Amino acid sequence: MKKNSLKVLSVIGASIVPFVITPLIVSCSKGEDLSNVKMYDKNHRILFNGAGEILDYDGNATELEIPEYLENNSVTSSPYYRKRIQIKKIGYSAFEWNKNEDSGRPKLQKVTLPNSITYINSYSFRNNEISSINIPDSVIEIDTSVFENNKISSINIPNSITKIGDSAFKN
Questions:
Q1: Which residues of the chain form beta strands (DSSP E)?
Q2: pLDDT tens digits, 110-157
Q3: Cα 26 to Cα 156: distance, rounded to the nearest angstrom
């Protein structure tokens, strides 16, 4: 016998108010601060927040093309936050050592940044094996030690850059 999904919410006087349980999918309000909401794009293996900042990478690629948009599509993600977010920042230490040299993961050798990135935070790509980097025209600031201890032999820095932190490209 099939169960009915109709439930009784309450009894008001002599009338019964029924409701049906359905999944709720809503979108975020424009201007809502999602900077503290952690999201995960399982296809790219990147943890990010609702403000468009990459927080962590748990993949094992040696060559990585970071997409302009990431989608919160993990199995455990709430439908409320299941949305595409434009990536604007690379977070503090997000790809450093490709996170943990004891993990057995290979270090990054090549990375391609999207044209949506405006800020690259400290230590973002430190201690990898990147030999060449093309900084997109959208980037305004490169913080401290971003590409420190890599194998940089070729770099393109656009005129849009207003600040480069100490030891940003130190080998």
A1: 6-12, 15-20, 38-41, 46-49, 53-57, 63-65, 69-71, 84-86, 89-90, 110-112, 119-120, 132-134, 141-142, 154-156, 163-164
A2: 999 999 999 999 999 999 999 999 999 999 999 999 999 999 999 999
A3: 42
Three-state SS across 130-160? Answer: CCEEECCCCCCEECCCCCCCCCCCEEECCCC
- Residue 30: count other Cβ atoms within 10 Å of its Cβ: 5
Please report how many Cα atoms fall inside a 13 Å half-sphere around the Cα of residue 144, on the Cβ side: 2
Q: How far apart are CA 84 and CA 73, in angstroms?
A: 9
Instruction: Give 79-122 pLDDT, tens digit per residue.
Output: 555 678 899 999 999 998 765 556 566 789 999 999 999 999 99
Burial (CB < 10 A; 0-12, 13-18, 19+), residue 16, is exposed
Q: Which of 11, 154, 138 is nearest to 66 (CA)?
A: 138
The residue written with tokens 């979108």 in the block is 27
